[in-house]
Amino acid sequence: MKGCSRRMSRFDHVALLALVTAESSPDIRASSLIPFISDKILIVVLPVAVYWFFSLIFQACDDNGWLSKYKLHTPEEFLKRNRIRKRDVIQGVLIQHVLQVVVGIGLAYFEPDEIVNEQQNIVTWVQRIQLGKEYLPSLFAITGIDLLSLAEKVNLPAQCASAVGFAGWQVAVAKTIYYVLIPAFQYALAAFFVDSWQYGIHWCMHKNRWLYRTFHYRHHQLYVPYAFGALYNHPLEGFVQDTIGSLLAFRVAQLSIRQGIYFFTFATLKTVDDHSGFLLPWDPLQLFTDNNALYHDIHHQSWGMKTNFSQPFFSFWDRVFGTIWKGSDTGIRYERGRQLAKQAHVLEIEGVANGSSE
C-alpha cells in the first residue's frame, strides 16, 4: 500500500504541475511549415508544385528510356492511340490548376488563423482517461467481473486499481491518442470520403451518356495515360470532382491546415503516380493498395472502361458494387494492344516511304 501511495503521490504531483502549466499557458498561433510561406497558402500551392515536379520526373524517364521495362505501354501505343496532343493536355491541366488556386486562396483569405495549445489538449485527454478509469469497475461489474477483486489477486491494491492519480501511463496514452490515433482516424476518414465522392461522380459520368460525352470523354482521350494527364478533365468536372470533393473531405474529417497540406500533397502524388504508366515493383505508393497504376490504366482501355472506377486510394467501392475488373486475360489484352500499335506504326512508316519514293 505504501508503494502505491508513493507512486500516486509522485504521479499526482507531476500531473498537477502539467495541468497548472497547461491551463496557464496561452494559446499560440500555429507556426508555418515553411517560414516564409503561410500554411494557408502552402495548402493550395504545394499540391500543384508536387504535381508538376513529379510529372517532370516521369516525363524524363519517358524521354530517356529509363525504367522502360516497367512501362505499361510502348512508344508506338502513345503515338497511335492517344487522341489529344500533349501540349493541349498541359494547357487543360493548367486551367484546372489556376481555377483550383484561385478558389483555394479565396477561401484561405476567410479562414481564421489556427490556434493551438497542445499541452492543454493532452491534459484534457488525461482527464478523460482518468474519468473513464473511475467508471471501469462499475462497467465490468455489469458483465459479472469484479475488477477490484481481480486487482487484489494480482497483488495490486484496490485503491490503485480504482483511484490511481494521473499516472505516467495515462499521459503516454493521452499523447498516443492525440498525436497518433486521432490524426490516423482523420486521415482515414478523409481518404474514405474522397474515394466515395470520386467513385460516385466517376460512376455517374460513365453511366449517363450525356455526362460522358459532355464532360468525362475529355479525360478518356488518353488511352495511354501519362503523369501530366492525371488531372486533364473538363474544367467543370475537375472543379466538382477534385476541388469541391477535397474541400468537403477537409471539413468532414476536421483536418487542420497542416494536416490538409500533408493529405492533399499525398493525394496529388498518388494521382500522378497512378497515371504515370509505370508499374514500379518498389514504388511504395503502389504497394500499400491494389489501386495502383495498372488498376487505373485498365480503366483507360476500351475493354476495361466500364470497370475500376475507384480512385485515388482504395478499391473498396469497386468491390462493393462489383465494378472491379475480373478478367484473367489482362496480359494478353495488353500485348495485343502493343502489337496492333506496332503494326500501325510500321504501316505508317512504309506509307511515308512509298509516298516519298514516288
Automatic annotation (TrEMBL):
One of its GO terms (cellular component) is membrane. Residues 188-323 form the Fatty acid hydroxylase domain. Its main location: membrane. It is found in: Membrane. Keywords: Membrane, Transmembrane, Transmembrane helix. GO terms for molecular function: iron ion binding; oxidoreductase activity. InterPro entries: Fatty_acid_hydroxylase, Sterol_Desaturase_Related. GO terms for biological process: lipid biosynthetic process. The keyword Transmembrane helix applies. This is Sphingosine hydroxylase. It comes from Coccidioides posadasii (strain RMSCC 757 / Silveira) (Valley fever fungus).
